[in-house]
Write a structure and sequence with these properties.
Length: 192
C-alpha cells in the first residue's frame, strides 16, 4: 500500500540564483526568463512518487534579498529538507550558500536533509564555481549536491527525487503550527 509523506521544504540562497525558477520548473514545468524577485516567500506544493511511497513537498520559496534574511528562520523552522541554491556563474552566491548551510546545520532541525543546488548549469561558458569544488564541500558537510538548470530542466526533478529518497519513510506528518503563517499565502507567480 502506498502512503503519502507530507514534508516541509525550504529554498534558501542569495537573490537572483534562480530559486523561484527551480521550484516553478519543478511544480509547473515552466520557465520564465525575466521575473521579479520574490517578496517574503512563496508557497507551492508538488508530489514525487518513489517506489515505496509518495512524498508531497510543501515548498517555501524564500526571498534572497538581504533585507529578508532575518525572516528565514521562521520558514526553515520545522523543515524536513532544504535546497540551498547558488549560481554556478557567481562565486559570491556560492559563499552565500555555504553561509546558509552553516546556519541550517546550527539552527535548523537536527535531521534536516540539505541539498546544495548549483543552478544555471546551462551557462557552462560563464562558469565561475567548479563542480569539483562544490561537490567536495557537499561531501565534507554530508549534504546532497547536484547541478541544475531551471532553464532547460536539467536535474530539476532529480534534485527533488534525491531529497525524497533521503527522507525517513516513517516521518511524522507536519503540524500546521510549524508553518510561519496560519494559512499558506496565495501562490507567487514570480520566478527568479
Amino acid at each position: 500500500m502506498d502512503s503519502t509523506i507530507v514534508v516541509k521544504l525550504v529554498l534558501l540562497g542569495d537573490t537572483a540564483v534562480g530559486k523561484s525558477c527551480l521550484v516553478v520548473r519543478f511544480v509547473r514545468d515552466e520557465f520564465f526568463e525575466f521575473q521579479e524577485p520574490t517578496i517574503g516567500a512563496a508557497f507551492l506544493t508538488q508530489t514525487v512518487q518513489l517506489d515505496d511511497a509518495a512524498v508531497k513537498f510543501e515548498i517555501w520559496d524564500t526571498a534572497g534579498q538581504e533585507r529578508y534574511r532575518s525572516l528565514a528562520p521562521m520558514y526553515y523552522r520545522g523543515a524536513a529538507c532544504a535546497v540551498v541554491v547558488y549560481d554556478i556563474t557567481n562565486p559570491d552566491s556560492f559563499a552565500g550558500a555555504k553561509s546558509w548551510v552553516k546556519e541550517l546545520q546550527r539552527r535548523g532541525d537536527a535531521n534536516v536533509v540539505i541539498a546544495l543546488a548549483g543552478n544555471k548549469a546551462d551557462l557552462e561558458s560563464r562558469r565561475k564555481v567548479e563542480f569539483e569544488e562544490a561537490n567536495a564541500y557537499a561531501e565534507e558537510n554530508g549534504i546532497l549536491h547536484l547541478e541544475t538548470s531551471a532553464k532547460n530542466a536539467n536535474n530539476v526533478k532529480a534534485l527533488f527525487v534525491e531529497i525524497a529518497k533521503k527522507l525517513p519513510k516513517n516521518r511524522p506528518q507536519p503540524e500546521r503550527e510549524a508553518f510561519p503563517l496560519a494559512a499558506p499565502p496565495q501562490e507567487n507567480r514570480s520566478c527568479c
